[in-house]
């Protein structure tokens, strides 16, 4: 697969109008595009996703099937979330819950977290755990934007080192899009809920 054949999609877990998570993901996608990839922002504000209910078929759950198809079509997915109560956001969790191994299994995933305060370590850890349970391969390089209200000015990064870290994630999303992870994770063997979506 050449870099021009790579599709990178960013799943934005923030619904805020002036979302720092979305701004950071757009910078990441810009770097992926510069590296030759086709890019797409999956903005959850544009999808009707009811709270996940395992008794409801995905086809009958608003735009869940449409979103899952977009995730499936990507070679690399970058999950972006604000830190809420030490974890990632409920809109992102709902979106992921409507997906399974068909969408994430053996796929390259990047992680980006944003917080209003300190470095969002637990948000990144929790997203990594979910990806492991879905048997995705998570890029070792991850991006975090702490103190988000001071990190941007007029939609641009204030700190060039922070911008470089986010843009590096975009380049790695392209670079590692065709990696073949092996073996399956222990967690994925026990993730019955991700089968047969």
Structural commentary:
By secondary structure, the chain is α/β, with parallel strands linked by helices. It has one domain: 3-Layer(aba) Sandwich (Rossmann fold). 38% of the residues lie in helices and 18% in strands. The protein has 8 helices and 8 strands, in the order βαβαβααβαββαββαα. It has helices at residues 20-34, 64-73, 90-97, 101-104, 121-133, 148-151, 160-175, 186-189; strands spanning 7-12, 38-43, 76-82, 108-114, 137-138, 143-145, 152-153, 156-157. Strands 1, 2, 3, 4, 5 and 6 form a 6-stranded parallel beta sheet that branches. Strands 7-8 form a two-stranded antiparallel ribbon. A hairpin with a 2-residue loop joins strand 7 (152-153) and strand 8 (156-157). Helix 1 crosses helix 7 (160-175). The radius of gyration is 16 Å and the shape is globular. The mean pLDDT is 93.
| CATH domain fold name | Rossmann fold
CATH architecture: 3-Layer(aba) Sandwich
Element-level helix/strand string = EHEHEHHEHEEHEEHH
Mean pLDDT: 93
Counted beta strands: 8
- CATH class value: Alpha Beta
Assign a percent range to the helix content. Answer: 25-40%
Largest sheet: 6 strands, parallel
Radius of gyration: 16 Å
Structurally, the number of domains stands at 1
Class from helix and strand fractions: alpha/beta
- Unreliable sequence segments: none
How far apart are the termini?
27 Å
CATH homologous superfamily assignment? Flavodoxin domain
Strand content: 15-25%
Principal-axis shape equals: globular
Total helical elements = 8
Protein name: NADPH-dependent FMN reductase
GO molecular function, one term: oxidoreductase activity
Organism: Natrinema versiforme JCM 10478
Pfam family, one: FMN_red
